[in-house]
Amino acid sequence: MKIEIGQTAPDFALFDSDKNKVTLAEQKGKNVLLLFFPQAFTGVCTAELCSIRDNIALYNNTDATVFGISVDSIFTLGKFKSEQGYNFPLLSDFNKEVSRAYGSIYENWILDMKGVSKRSAFLIDKERIVRYAEVLENAGEQPNFTAIQSTLKTL
What we know:
Radius of gyration: 14 Å
CATH topology: Glutaredoxin
Order of helices and strands: EEEHHEHEHEEEEH
CATH superfamily: Glutaredoxin
CATH architecture: 3-Layer(aba) Sandwich
Largest sheet: 7 strands, mixed
Structural class: alpha+beta
Oligomer: single chain
Number of domains: 1
Strand content: 15-25%
Shape: globular
Mean pLDDT: 94
Low-confidence stretches: none
Number of helices: 5
Number of strands: 9
């Protein structure tokens, strides 16, 4: 399913690396940036999330909550978050349901891996309306954070 700007974002319930259940519905009244990424501990994923970590004030100052989402287990994500000092939650979509709901999954990826999250970004406003959507086919690219931040400033 492809997510379009202007539609209501699909709700989800995922566990974070601290074993807390997080739902999108609980975030109503906040702007939310969902960042799907292929795999913890890989070069581009680490660089992308470290950039968010280092610039978290840009999101905090615009009342935005950032969530990183991958199909890695909560245990892998916990180690990744700890080692990199991430200051935002990482959510495990181990069952691949949310990645599929957001049209953000490689059915077949490198080395015959199946069901890996595509690198993508979705900015959702306080009423759960999608205001920015970018799904990248090339896992070596990063979302357009300048465009995301510009959109965020309008919310």
